[in-house]
């Protein structure tokens, strides 16, 4: 296993920039998830690491080797594809044996390695079958088997679970995580599902529009998103973002909406708000950090219930705060109905403030 | 209930239609075979003998017997046809496979233009090109050679072959090649070991198309080849009209023998052919 380093990697198609100066380092044995919405450049980035498409600029190192100009076959990596890409005319055994045959290993060794990989993945009984005779989950295991049958320097995975049904996906998710821990493998994993990334990855690379937005551990991405995109992409339900105006009232700083109400900020948040490039400030808050009151409350701002979504053990309430929708979570036994007037109180220690123009997080220091 | 009836009605209409179509196509062949085992006298009788009274294989014996002139000539034409058709097929596949793969997988300047330029030939009747091609062949000194025919048949067969095969390659997920390349194959090995076997039905169908096209072609063969020793079957068989005051049984026997290779090839490879038409071209 090895370290993977991307330095200012660029990929352009004509005038379109698919990947824009992306840099990050995947440490040896780390599980890194590339996440982002469709078309954000995450799969392109993975293909660049694999060498399947030529780079327009930048450097990629795998281990201690610069691999910019190396063919995929010489990069010593393994890849699991979204559609598994099993060779349809070969049996499972031959699918697993193919990477070893290409490396001209002796027949006995190939046989031993294939059987070992099959044993680990519990697919020994399927070795003589063709891929089309397998279920989705079984095909998934074979694809994984083909990747781990030789010791690659890194595993690349392109949405490997997205073709499975929901139940199997959760099961394979824990198996993949376990597999990563047992092998100490370096894994770069592309997914559009932020939940998959948060639950499996050591680090997340959040991408949007070809740019790397933030690269950090999931907990950090969750607690201190660098900009509004990361804030709204990670977490379910997403962080509520409310565009407001900051105003100074003597020694205090307040956030207002069309002068209908004022939200006084704590001293730390006030310092943040004053660092914005203009008066426009975006207030970000996760559902669990907002308290909902049914009567006026000091420091709370007036709002109106839009919909109530009971999920069983927790009830999500969508509330109109001015023109923005804010999601608040409640205990399921709290009675609440649509159009009810409510008052929201934000936990000042856990709210996020973003610059209204640059969309970047505001810091106090 | 009424819905079921309607489907059944359509099914029966379909069967009747197919039966009529079958009669339409099979009857001439049937008559050809019947005539080929009659004597010259029996073949000319009116009203016709529906079933040969004295069937004879004499016509076939004559055609396949190298000791007489007719047999020698027939077998020579047969050999010429086989040579021209096989060469056309092999060269056609050798060119169409990489061309179709390139059209399917690579984005290069002029790709769309080239692809439609390839099809442009098929928008005109073949005869339109008779004179230009003849002049071209004369300029290249190829008139009277099999090379002239092979080249001509290639230009006619390749567009369809490339089009058909491209449909096939379009349907093979590019990830299979990517997986192979990551597994240690070069781009060429990925093509050879993974893509080629998967496109075999398409390649076989293409080969059949090329072969039949070349095997049956008459106009160009009649124009480009004057030397009797180099004539192909469709032209050679024509001589039955002139020299023997139309020897109908002989002509029918020759025609039957001519259709044998194509029919046999088709029967052996038909499952690939059907696969090619349903999986490749149509889906794409």
Mean pLDDT of chain B: 84
Computed Rg of chain B: 23 Å
Please name the CATH architecture of chain B. Answer: Orthogonal Bundle
Cα-to-Cα separation, first versus last residue of chain B: 37 Å
Instruction: Tell how many strands the DSSP assignment of chain B holds.
Output: 0
Distance from N terminus to C terminus of chain A (CA atoms, Å) equals 39 Å
CATH topology-level name of chain B: MetI-like fold
As residue ranges, the low-confidence spans of chain A are none
Characterize the main sheet of chain B. none
Number of helices of chain A: 9
CATH level-two architecture of the largest domain in chain A: 3-Layer(aba) Sandwich
- Overall mean confidence score, pLDDT of chain A: 91
Broad structural category of chain B: mainly alpha
CATH class of the largest domain in chain A: Alpha Beta
Order of adjacent strands in the largest pleated sheet of chain A: 6-7-8-3-9-10
Which properties best describe this structure?
heterodimer; A: 365 residues; alpha+beta; Rossmann fold; OB fold (Dihydrolipoamide Acetyltransferase, E2P); 2 domains; six-stranded mixed sheet; five-stranded antiparallel sheet; 9 helices; 20 strands; B: 284 residues; mainly alpha; MetI-like fold; 14 helices; disordered C terminus
Describe the structure.
The complex is a heterodimer of chains A (365) and B (284). With 365 residues, chain A is an alpha+beta fold. Chain A has two domains: 4-228, P-loop containing nucleotide triphosphate hydrolases (Rossmann fold, 3-Layer(aba) Sandwich), CATH 3.40.50.300; 240-355, Nucleic acid-binding proteins (OB fold (Dihydrolipoamide Acetyltransferase, E2P), Beta Barrel). Chain A has helices at 42-50, 92-102, 107-121, 136-148, 166-183, 194-200, 218-223, 228-233, 267-274, and strands at 4-13, 16-26, 31-35, 57-62, 65-66, 77-80, 154-158, 187-191, 203-208, 211-216, 240-249, 252-257, 261-264, 280-285, 290-293, 301-310, 315-321, 324-330, 341-346, 352-355. Chain A has a six-stranded mixed beta sheet with strand order 6-7-8-3-9-10, sandwiched between helices. Chain A has a five-stranded antiparallel beta sheet with strand order 13-12-11-14-20. A five-stranded antiparallel beta sheet of chain A has the order 15-19-16-17-18, with no helix packed on it. In chain A, α2 (92-102) packs across α3 (107-121) and α3 (107-121) packs across α4. Chain B is an all-alpha fold and 284 residues long. Chain B has a single domain, classed as MetI-like fold. In chain B, 76% of the residues lie in helices and 0% in strands. Chain B contains 14 helices and no strands. The two termini of chain B are 37 Å apart. The A-B interface holds A 47, 50, 52, 71-73, 75, 77-79, 81-83, 85, 87-89, 98-99, 102-103, 146 and B 173, 175-176, 178-187, 189, 194, 197-198.
């Amino acid at each position: 296993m090895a370290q993977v380093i991307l330095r200012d990697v660029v990929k352009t198609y004509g005038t379109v920039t698919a990947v824009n100066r992306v840099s990050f380092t995947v440490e040896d044995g780390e599980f890194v998830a590339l996440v982002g919405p469709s078309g954000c450049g995450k799969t392109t980035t993975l293909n660049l690491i694999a060498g399947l498409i030529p780079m327009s600029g930048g450097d990629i190192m795998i281990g201690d080797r610069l691999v910019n100009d190396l063919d995929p076959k010489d990069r010593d990596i393994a890849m699991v594809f979204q559609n598994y890409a099993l060779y349809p005319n070969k049996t499972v055994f031959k699918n697993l044996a193919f990477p070893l045959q290409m490396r001209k290993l002796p027949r006995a060794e190939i046989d031993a390695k294939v059987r070992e990989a099959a044993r680990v993945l519990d697919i020994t009984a399927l070795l003589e079958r063709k891929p089309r005779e397998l279920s989705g989950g079984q095909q998934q295991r074979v694809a994984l088997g083909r990747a781990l049958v030789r010791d690659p320097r890194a595993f690349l995975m392109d949405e490997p679970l997205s073709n499975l049904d929901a139940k199997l996906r959760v099961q394979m998710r824990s198996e993949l995580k376990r597999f990563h821990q047992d092998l100490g493998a370096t894994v770069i994993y592309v997914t559009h599902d932020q939940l998959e990334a948060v639950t499996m990855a050591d680090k997340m690379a959040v991408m949007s529009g070809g740019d790397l937005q933030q690269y950090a551990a999931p907990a950090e991405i969750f607690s201190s998103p660098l900009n509004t995109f990361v804030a709204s992409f990670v977490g379910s339900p997403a962080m509520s973002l409310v565009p407001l105006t900051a105003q100074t009232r003597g020694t205090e700083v307040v956030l207002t909406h069309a002068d209908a109400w004022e939200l006084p900020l704590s001293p730390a948040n006030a310092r943040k708000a004053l660092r914005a490039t203009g008066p426009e400030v975006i207030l970000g808050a996760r559902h669990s950090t907002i308290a909902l009151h049914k009567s006026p409350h000091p420091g709370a701002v007036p709002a109106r219930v839009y919909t109530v979504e009971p999920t069983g053990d927790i009830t999500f309430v969508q509330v109109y705060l001015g023109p923005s929708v804010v999601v608040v979570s409640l205990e399921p036994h709290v009675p609440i109905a649509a159009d009810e007037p409510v008052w929201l109180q934000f936990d000042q220690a856990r709210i996020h403030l973003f610059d209204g123009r640059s969309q970047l997080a505001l810091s106090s220091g | 209930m009424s819905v079921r009836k309607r489907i059944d009605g359509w099914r029966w209409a379909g069967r009747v239609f197919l039966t009529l179509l079958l009669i339409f196509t099979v009857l001439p062949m049937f008559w050809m075979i019947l005539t080929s085992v009659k004597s010259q006298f029996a073949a000319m009788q009116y009203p016709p003998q529906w079933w040969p009274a004295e069937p004879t294989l004499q016509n076939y014996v004559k055609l396949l017997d190298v000791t007489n002139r007719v047999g020698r000539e027939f077998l020579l034409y047969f050999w010429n046809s086989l040579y021209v058709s096989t060469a056309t097929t092999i060269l056609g596949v050798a060119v169409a496979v990489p061309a179709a793969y390139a059209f399917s997988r690579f984005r290069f300047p002029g790709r769309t233009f080239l692809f439609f330029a390839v099809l442009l030939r098929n928008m005109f009747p073949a005869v339109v090109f008779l004179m230009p091609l003849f002049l071209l062949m004369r300029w290249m000194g190829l008139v009277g050679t099999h090379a002239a025919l092979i080249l001509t048949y290639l230009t006619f067969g390749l567009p369809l072959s490339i089009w058909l095969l491209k449909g096939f390659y379009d349907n093979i997920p590019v990830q299979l090649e990517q997986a192979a390349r990551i597994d240690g194959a070069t781009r060429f090995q990925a093509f050879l070991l993974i893509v080629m076997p998967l496109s075999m039905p398409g390649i076989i169908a293409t080969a059949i198309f090329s072969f039949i096209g070349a095997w049956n072609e008459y106009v160009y063969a009649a124009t480009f080849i004057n030397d009797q020793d180099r004539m192909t079957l469709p032209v050679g068989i024509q001589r039955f009209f002139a020299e023997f005051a139309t020897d109908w049984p002989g002509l029918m026997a020759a025609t039957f023998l001519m259709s044998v290779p194509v029919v046999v090839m088709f029967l052996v490879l038909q499952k690939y052919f059907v696969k090619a038409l349903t999986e490749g071209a149509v889906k794409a």
